[in-house]
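Thread: quick sanity check before group meeting

JM: Hey all, I'm pulling together slides for Thursday and realized we never actually wrote out the predicted structure for the chain we discussed last week. Dropping the sequence here so it's in one place. If anyone has concerns about the input, flag it before I start.
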Amino acid sequence: METWDAIRSRRNVRSYGERAIAPEDLDRILEAARRTPSAGNQQAWDFVVCTDREQLVQLARVWRGARHVASSAATIALVAPNSDDAQMRDLIQFDLGQATMSVMLAAADLGIGSAHAGVHDQELARRLLGFPEDRFCALLITLGVPADRPLTPIERPDRRPFNDVVHRGHW
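JM (edit): ok, ran it. Output follows.
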């Protein structure tokens, strides 16, 4: 798929088919995450990928809005260091946002659906994923083949009109 088509096709998918993701496709998605630009090139992230069904079912319990984790073919946990420095926290969140979009676009390029989920229960996430005490799980990105329809460019996206959100030179 071309980049522009991947951008126009990407949508939140929370219902997945039974098909597994090929290991080379999963590695390509993870490589996209690894290559994401980072403020000061800090790369203050780690990615924990889960494909085991029982682990995914348990991981779905970290937040009430994470039920789709249980049925995903794979879920990537984005883990980052805790910081007492407000500026560092902001930079980490910015970088995690970029990594999230890299993952989602790389997945869409391969015809793989994705969605995000928050993490409320950090202790459960830590127990299931094994990340150190000085880190937190910022979010989960679920992946899988869409159960309803394949990813194709969305001709009429449910978005505010272009001229309402784009301001040239001033508001």
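AS: nice. The chain has six helices and four strands. The chain has one domain: 3-146.
JM: adding both to the slides.
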